[in-house]
Amino acid sequence: MNKKRDVAIVAYGETKIEFRGGKSAYDLASEVFAQILEKTGLVPGDIDGLAVSETMSETHNPFYSVYMAEMLGITPRWNQVTGLGGCSAIANVARAASAIREGYCETVLVLAADAQSSMRGTAEQGAQRHEFQYPTGLKGPVGVFGLMTQRYRHLYDLKDEALAKLAVTQRNHALLNENACEKLRKPITEADYLTSKYVSDPLRMLDSVMVCDGANGVLVTSAKNAKRLNLKKAIYPTAYSEITSYKSFDFTAEIIDTGFSVVGPEALRKAGMGVKDVRMLQAYDDFLIALMLVMEQVGFCGPGEASEYILSHDFSFAGDLPLNTGGGQISAGQAGLAGGGTNFVEAVRQMFEEGGARQIPNPVNAMVTGIGMIPYGRNWGVSNVLILEQ
């Protein structure tokens, strides 16, 4: 098929993920921007587009992206803020590519930064939460994912040893990632997972993310401009698919039936690929059950088959399907709503062959996924998939 390779990702940056690091989202973003400028030799005046992910720590600020441009010293001709939660980072790559093709701008900084664990006060997400969830004590995603895990266990054969294998694999990757949160860079065993305390039965502590602070980003430009600037490294976002509110209005829908059953196969079809062609899976992982649902609904295995699929495959960086090779959010830390960029930037790093001790061989492509917003008693609110190719 005739894939679009007219837009390229030419650089990336990432801060260390910290628990209560004390820096603001602007501080963290500036570190990422400085890394990207150093790698490319560009100056702030060369950047004419900005796409930022919404945050928890700046939720109260309706001018977040405008302030961000000012703080970074750039004057974008196109400015985008995306509020799709963990889907925002890769969604912004697609939006940046469209803006470049339309001629609104030529070089876009796609940026995600959040200081959720250091923020003052509490960020409220509103909607039905105040009326129906908070009064019952359900204050966040843990309870909702506990319900989804329980539902999966009721319908299918959920093997705890499969979840334990995922937890240990990702932790082993985090041990090789200097940007992972130090509090999490400690070895664990499958026995540690199986004896970790329940936080929302049957969800365990080691199924779950820890909210931290951090930032990440990439530079997106036209392939023509990348060549003009003599930028040596480039990868291409060749396929993208996104869906919001999948079956959210159907109160009889199965709660573990997610939008990935739509966007996964569609992204692969656009890329002219099948699941066997995927070289690495960098999947949004706020809870381990999410990885199982993504594997099944994208098509790596059939419904209810994730446990056996996981137990029969090697997901290490040297395995047959490397998974979240930076440790994922569960073992590197969830950088607030910038967490959606953690595994995405890891995919870019791997494809640039800068993975160091965890570098996968032959990193010709990657599938990156996002999850955004978790309603009660239904599947997540947004699902998206991005395919990257060399």
Question: Which secondary structure elements does this structure contain, and how are they paired or packed?
Answer:
Layout lengths: L6 E8 L10 H16 L8 E5 L10 H9 L5 E5 L5 H15 L4 E9 L13 H5 L7 H15 L4 H15 L15 H6 L2 E3 L2 E2 L8 E10 H6 L7 E9 L15 H12 L9 E2 L5 H11 L7 H6 L16 H5 L9 H10 L13 E8 L9 E8 L1
Parallel strand pairs: 2-3, 2-4, 9-10
Antiparallel strand pairs: 1-7, 4-7, 5-6, 8-11, 10-11
Rough outline: globular
Low-pLDDT regions: none
> What's the CATH C level of the largest domain?
Alpha Beta
Helix content range = 25-40%
When the domains are counted, the total is: 2
The number of helical runs is 13
**Rounded average pLDDT:** 95
The order of strands across the largest sheet is: 1-7-4-2-3
Structural class: alpha/beta
Let me know the CATH homologous superfamily of the largest domain: Thiolase/Chalcone synthase
Rg, alpha carbons: 20 Å
